[in-house]
Structures are given as C-alpha cells and as structure tokens.
Amino acid sequence: MKLGILFSGGKDSVYSAYLAKKSGHELTCLISIFSENKDSYMFHTPSISKTEKQAESMKIPIIVQKTKGEKEKELKDLEKAIKIAIKKYKIEGIVTGAIQSVYQSSRIQKICNKLKIECFNPLWQINEEEYLDDLLKNKFEIIITGVFAYPLDEKWLGKQIDKKFVKEIKELNKKYKISMIGEGGEFETFVVDCPLFSKKLKIKSFQDIKEGENSFRREIEIQ
C-alpha cells in the first residue's frame, strides 16, 4: 500500500515509518507540519524544519505545510497537506507515531475517514521498555531536542538515547512517574541515523533556548 508518513523527525514518526516499510508498504511521501505555535496541541516543534534534511537522507519526497498552530484550526492545515499527498503521490493511507494520545489519533482518524484512506498507528499502546529496547536493537541514533518537565533540565539537551539514557529514564520513571518515552510531553527527540537513512546526519551547530523554569529546547543546524 502507498503510504504517507506524518513526519516530525522524532523517534515515534521515524520508527513508525520503519515498521510500515518492514511490513511491506511503500513509503511514498513524508508530511511535515511546521507550526508557529511552539505549544501546538497536535504537532512536534523543536527543530521541525530539519525534517527536510531527513527526507533527503531517506530519499523520500516531503510535503511541508505551515500552520499557525491554533487549536482545532491546525487540523484544517493537516487535512490540506494530506489532500496534496493523495493527489500528488496517490497515497492510500497515513502512518502516525501516536502511542497513547487519543486526542491526536482520533483527530487524524477522522480526517482519514473523511478522505476515505486508511490510518495506521504502528506504535499504539506499545510497552515503553520494549520500545526503547527496539530502538537500540534496530540501530536508531536519537538525540534529545527538548525537555519540558521536572527534573529534566538543559543538561539533557543533546543526550543520545542509549543504554545509559534508558537506565536514567527508568529511574526517573520510578521516582517521578515520567514517561520513559516522553509520551506525556516530557521530552522531544530528533533522529540523526537509522536503517531508513542513506547517510547519518551530522550536527553543525545548535542553539539552546530556555523557555520556562523546566522548559528548554535545542534548535539544531545540519551539515
């Protein structure tokens, strides 16, 4: 089946694309929504523009749709982008990185129903520990580009999700009930390498921005 990937560049959307391809589907295009609202209800925002570099490495065309990020209204921009994908790339379905968010998954499903295409959520209700193990096992190189919950701070920015990270986040999960995969918005990620990439992305420079007491993001530049 020809599929479009709702693509933020973070671990969930990239790994969902990987699973879709592994299942025999054709990854026809990526769809990235660039939101002006850093606190978007629907869309990932740290370093979102760098999805174009990931698309280059994946050798898959990307549709970029801008949105002001206003609650519910941003869904019209998402629908517009999916319509372009249907017309231009003949997609028959959409892949999302949704794991537990009924808010996100239900709204995307509604758009897909309206446009008469399939909606796939390969990571839905996945076990957090198993998911982290699978990312490492399948050689995904992922860095942290945003932290938004105590006790995470700016020292976590740029950290790679590796065995050390998994051990640390497990301890924080036990102590503070933080999601080990950032599903509660505790942290955001960016994939620099994985089996879908033709080459690893190299970070040329970055800027760390403090947005609140427990809110930090890293905007990266790719070589």
Strand order of the largest sheet: 3-2-1-4-5
| Main sheet summary | 5 strands, parallel
Q: Could you tell me the radius of gyration in angstroms?
A: 16 Å
Strand content: 25-35%
Supply the CATH class of the largest domain: Alpha Beta
- The CATH superfamily name of the largest domain is HUPs
Number of helices: 6
C-alpha geometry? globular
Number of domains: 2
CATH architecture of the largest domain: 3-Layer(aba) Sandwich
What's the CATH topology name of the largest domain? Rossmann fold
Overall pLDDT level = 94
What distance lies between the first and last C-alpha atoms, to the nearest angstrom? 33 Å
Indicate the structural class: alpha/beta
Low-confidence stretches: none
Secondary structure tally: strands: 9
Helix content: 25-40%
Task: Give an overview in words.
It is a single chain. The termini are far apart. The protein has 2 domains: 2-120, 3-Layer(aba) Sandwich (Rossmann fold); 128-222, Alpha-Beta Complex (putative n-type atp pyrophosphatase, domain 2). The longest helix is centred in the middle third of the chain and has 16 residues, at 74-89. The model has no long low-confidence stretch (mean pLDDT 94). It is of the alpha/beta class and 223 residues long. It has helices at residues 11-22, 51-58, 74-89, 102-115, 128-137, 163-176, and strands spanning 2-6, 26-35, 62-67, 93-95, 118-120, 141-147, 187-193, 203-212, 215-222. The radius of gyration is 16 Å and the shape is globular. The strands form 2 sheets. The protein has a 5-stranded parallel β-sheet with strand order 3-2-1-4-5, sandwiched between helices. The protein has a 4-stranded antiparallel β-sheet with strand order 7-6-9-8, with no helix packed on it. The protein is built from 6 helices and 9 strands.
